[in-house]
Amino acid sequence: MGILDMLGVGTAPSPSAHEGDTDTVKRIVAELEALEPSRARFLAAFAYVLSRVANADSTICVNETEAMQEIVQKLGHLSDVQALLVVEIAKSQARLLGGTENYLVTREFRDVATDAQRLELLDCVFAVAAADGAITTSEESQTGQIAKELGFTHPEYAAALASHAEHRTVLRSLRAKRET
Q1: What is the pTM of this model?
Q2: Does the domain spanning 20-179 belong to CATH 3.40.710.10?
């Protein structure tokens, strides 16, 4: 038994798993068997991408976790317990496998989501990044990478980012320098 199996990451695929699902998505789907499998896969990928931006600075704060839970519960029409479970598993997977899973999970979401759902996720990514009152440069960089992987053009990303300008630490620093 490998280390990933002991951590519950390398578990056998659920009967509802689809070929091409990443281990991250498969694990969350297995925890949400009560949901329709395609809906569970969608929520798994959605929550993982949120965790990805929250973990951009290598820490996921309480405010970011609460924002993710609220978003996943509301948009996923989940109970408190289900939303908590989805977010905690997604956070754990982002911490453990972030480097290898980030692109794969985001691409999987892009492939199953509508344009409106991709845009909604981008807005939610910014909401999680700003949950602690600031979008750091590492979070901003991660949101840019996510936007690119979701298929957004740079002007589309820039427009979305502009609507969150008050939270950008890079702009705060520039303003502070001008005022001194």
Answers
A1: 0.77
A2: no
